[in-house]
Amino acid sequence: MSPQDPIGRDDAARDGHTADGAWFDALFAAHATAVHRYLVRRLPAGAVDAEDLAADVLATAWRRRADVPRGAELPWLYRTAGFVLANHRRKARATPVAVVPDVPDDVDPAALAVDDDQVRAVLGRLSARDRRILLLVAWDGLAPDDLAQVLGVSRGGADAALSRARARLRSAWDGQDGAQADAG
Fold this sequence. Notes:
Layout: H1 9-42, H2 50-63, H3 73-91, H4 109-113, H5 117-124, H6 128-138, H7 144-151, H8 155-183
Helix pairs in contact: 1-2, 1-3, 2-3, 3-7, 5-8, 6-8, 7-8
Protein name: Sigma-70 family RNA polymerase sigma factor
Pfam family, one: Sigma70_r4_2
Keywords: Sigma factor, Transcription, Transcription regulation
């Protein structure tokens, strides 16, 4: 306690800030790459905004650190990333030609996985919600409880939504196979 602060608030504030900093450092180390990849997979090929958007998501986590559920940080970050991405798409601005690199960077293996036109075509036939559910599970590896939290529904609701999305994916895939057989 200091004469200026007889009840020790300065020490408590410093200790809280140190704990928050340690929490955020751990959050960043554990989930920054996953958040970045989540955004890369959802942006158009060649988009350079993933790093900035990931930084926005993590800055939101810092500002709202009291709201981030302990033990369920990644689903909260994915949900926040969805909101950040939606806001970014609404702002849709053109990329100046001077910003486009002459030589492409090394390609991320996650980006290579989505280059398959057939997979894109089948996913394109699904609703945005079905695509989101399937990609959260397949690409982002969310567990059922985490999926429920990202979707803002119960675990049973998430299981049902995933089951329906998988059934519609099978149907769309079978329709793709039939269309290729007719064309061949």
